[in-house]
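A note from the maintainers: we've had questions about how concatenated examples are separated. There is no special marker in the raw files; a new sequence line simply starts the next protein. For clarity in this README we add a label.
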Amino acid sequence: MLSRSSLWDEEDKLLVENLRQGYEWAWQKIFDKYHEILFRKAFDLLDNKAESKDVVQELFVALWQKRSRLLLKGSLEPYLYTAIKNRCLDRLESIKVYRKHIERYSQLHEDDSLNGSEDNRDLQFRQLATAINQLSSDVGFNSFKLMKFQHKNYL
């Protein structure tokens, strides 16, 4: 008789195979089965609900987009756990870089306020815009820009 864990692994293997063939219902079942536990893992790492929702959403979007190339060497659950952990670590690094740019901008703004130069303010604004655009290759930051600047939501 198969253990409960073995049955889940077999169910996941079938879901992954159906996902690879493009069946949306398989993706939905994987989402339903794992999204909550992945959210909790992300929240443990990020300590932020919105960021945690974003990384989980991004993971499931990527899973759908890469479904035809999805080759698992093990079980689905550890694959998803590793993927969410890596996405959270990437997000933390992006946040760190973003904060560094904001801090630099704040320092420049303070210096500019003391100098009072209009040209310096324009230069600093362009530098900030460049820094933000450099971060824009990050999917999460793109989500942030859409939500904050264009008032769009992911659901």
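[label: protein 2]
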Amino acid sequence: MATVKSQTQSATVGQQQLVDALGVMAFAVMAALNKLASENELSLTQLRMLGILRDRQLKISELAYALGLDRSSVSGLVDRTEQKGLIQKQPDPLDGRSVLVTVSRKGAHAAERGAAETARLLAPMTDALNRVETQRLTVLLERMLQHRWLPPEQTQQR
């Protein structure tokens, strides 16, 4: 019985160490993204929106879900970002009541520059890993991200 308890405690300690490391990494990434957003006169949420839309077009409701915001907040965000020329809206051909949001040509160029600048800002950390470590960490993070919208009780079953 002591073995099961020590394994559970060890798993809990290991999980807490992972959560702590992810938190510190999130803060480092957020600092880089805040710097990038500020330098480009964008809010962090506008920057996130460009990142989300860089390879897809979404309805406002889908964009709201992806950003974790309510639809009315996103409508205003979309309008402000459209005024900057970074995104464009068009009627949804399948649903006349909906609007599709996509990056504009200017927004696509901004997103490309932003991705390159983000890579540059994060290079001191990412360059610490070799090719195999980079690939392994990418696979693990992508697996974790597949579960990001699931309630905890569903992720424990997997």
